[in-house]
Amino acid sequence: MSASPTPKPWIEGIHAYVPGKARSADGRELVKLSANENPLGTSPATLAALTQAAPPARYPDPDASALRQGIGALHGINPARIVCGTGSDELLNLATQGYAGPGDEVLFTRYSFAVYDIAARRCGAVPVEAPDADYGADVDALLAAVTERTRVVFLANPNNPTGSFLPAGEVARLHARLPRDVLFVLDQAYAEYLAPEDDDCGLALAGRHDNVLVTRTFSKIYGLAGERIGWATGAPGIVDTLNRIRGPFNVTNHGQAAALAALGDQEFVRRSREHNTAELVRFSDAIGALGNHGLRALPSKGNFVLVLFEGALGAAAALDGLAEAGFAVRHLPGQGLPQALRITIGTREQMDAVAQRLRALAEAAR
Ligand code: PMP
Predict the structure, then answer these.
(1) Distances in Å between the alpha carbon of 116 and those of 88, 129, 137, 217?
(2) Which of the listed CATH numbers 3.40.50.300, 3.40.50.2000, 3.90.1150.10, 3.40.50.10540 matches domain 9-41+267-365?
(3) Model confidence over 169-183: pLDDT tens digits?
(4) Which CATH number, 3.40.50.360, 3.30.450.40, 3.40.640.10, 3.10.450.50, labels domain 44-264?
(5) Ligand 1 within 6 A of 227 CB?
(6) DSSP per-residue string spanning 57-99
(7) ipTM of the complex
(8) Cβ 304 vs Cβ 352: under 8 Å
(9) Residue 178 DSSP SS3
(10) Does the CB atom of residue 225 touch ligand 1 within 6 A?
């Protein structure tokens, strides 16, 4: 008779996160437009800083002090109100673990970031999805879904995978009507892609209120996805909670050095944003021209576009057709989007090739 360890029942309910792929089903290497990475790569100044990082034989600074100071200086935040993490994923998980447990509810909008569901389930909490409004967050629907068991509310702004964006007034309205003892996590992984006039005022909210946590990442516009660095800011009590439960050395020597250097190269950030804005418009227009074939690009404020397939060409066939042409994009049937593909904005040439291929596939499917 052999007994074996049994995972907690709530762990068995988790579907493991499926990351964006770079290979076709038959093992070919593809151009990866499936993980919202920066097509311009990493800034040269940041790459140079990697060689200056503390030696790998030494543990990193457990408090990421220099990095927190750099973040604080750029954004006008007291570094004591900042905590760094192994990607913002870790911080989203820690925030949930810190404030929700078995029987509690964690609320977010349908079609938002897949990690929220996992973060809730892994602490035994119940994930609750509020209905969307045309693929974006609906403040009234979120508020209507709040119960006395709600402990954490997530809002990704801009949202992945739909690209939707909630303006500052709506974010403030949502926050103002949430019970004060609910943690409001505003996930701003794509904030750096926004035009200045689109600021959702999340950092100001986090600076003023005791129940707001804003999370950010170096994985997207800063081109450091592989180094796994995120940060969060909120009231001292929330930051203290996260500091108590995070791993003591959760950001590596390389990660700390690279992120600090990346903050210093805002010219690279500006170029990345300009490239993204221009190609997002061009690609969305190219998809718009395929409307008669049932293709539709949702308006996006991120570095990706969700394309809906509402005609003869289905998303699964388009996924295969793009893979044959050498491109990996993201199909999200597990997130209730079987007829959609999320396509990361790549280089101009890549986006032209993807749009051309989609046109050819749509025409052939008629
Ligand atoms: N939030 C959102 C909305 C995201 O899309 C992502 C990346 N897919 C993350 C958080 C996590 O990014 P990272 O852990 O690399 O910081």
Answers:
(1) 12, 10, 14, 16
(2) 3.90.1150.10
(3) 999 999 999 999 999
(4) 3.40.640.10
(5) no
(6) TSPPPTT-HHHHHHHHHHHT--GGGEEEESHHHHHHHHHHHHH
(7) 0.99
(8) no
(9) coil
(10) yes
Q: Which residue carries 């119960």 as its tokens? A: 147
93 lines ligand 1 (CB under 6 A): no
Residue 1 reports pLDDT greater than 80: no
Ligand 1 atom closest to Cα of 112?
3
Residues paired with residue 309 on neighbouring β-strands, in sequence order: 295
DSSP type of residue 365: H
Q: Confirm or reject: Cβ of 86 under 6 Å from ligand 1.
A: no
Which residue type sits at 160? N
The model's pTM is: 0.97
Distance 339 CA to ligand 1 centre (A): 23
- For the chain, give the number of residues: 366
What are the residue boundaries of the structural domains of the chain, listed by start? 9-41+267-365, 44-264
